[in-house]
Amino acid sequence: MVELTAEEKAAITATWTKVKAEKLGVESLERILTAYPHTKRYFDHFGDFSFCTATEGNPQLKALGKKMMESFSEGLKHLDNLNYTFTSPIELHRDNLHMDPENFKFLGSKKVIVLSPHFGNNFTPALQAAFEKLVAAVADAMIYKYY
């Protein structure tokens, strides 16, 4: 499990209060669907995503992005116990959606990529490193319950 320092936790928490969760969520999902086309199979019921612009403005994708980021936000309140924070989403993705757990790593990297332009120069290398550690820890927590 990845360990965050007290300074990293404080920086993440302070930055996260400024995040527009719905916007970040849908942008992250749009990127994962574009960068990793195999993930589209989990969203067949959302419409035809066979071309890049199909994700733009999709209300179901927007709602999922918001829900996903609300869950992530809740997890930030329990940084010292991530393995048990994400029990409900893990069960949904493992038991109902049969999602490949590697996709959590892909999605985490897209969250960090999307954060950068929102914060510009304030998204320092140290802050990026802290978020990279965080999304790795969240992915590990999600994968932990698979096995």
TrEMBL record:
Keyword Metal-binding: yes
Globin domain location: 3-147
GO molecular function: haptoglobin binding; heme binding; hemoglobin alpha binding; metal ion binding; organic acid binding; oxygen binding; oxygen carrier activity; peroxidase activity
PROSITE patterns for this protein: GLOBIN
Entry annotated with the keyword Iron-sulfur: no
UniProt keyword annotations, A-Z: Acetylation, Heme, Iron, Metal-binding, Oxygen transport, Transport
One example of a Gene Ontology biological process annotation: hydrogen peroxide catabolic process
SUPFAM superfamilies named among the record's database cross-references: Globin-like (SSF46458)
Signal peptide: none
Transmembrane region(s): none
UniProt record similarity statement: Belongs to the globin family.
Chain's role: Involved in oxygen transport from the lung to the various peripheral tissues.
Descriptive protein name: LOW QUALITY PROTEIN: hemoglobin subunit beta-like
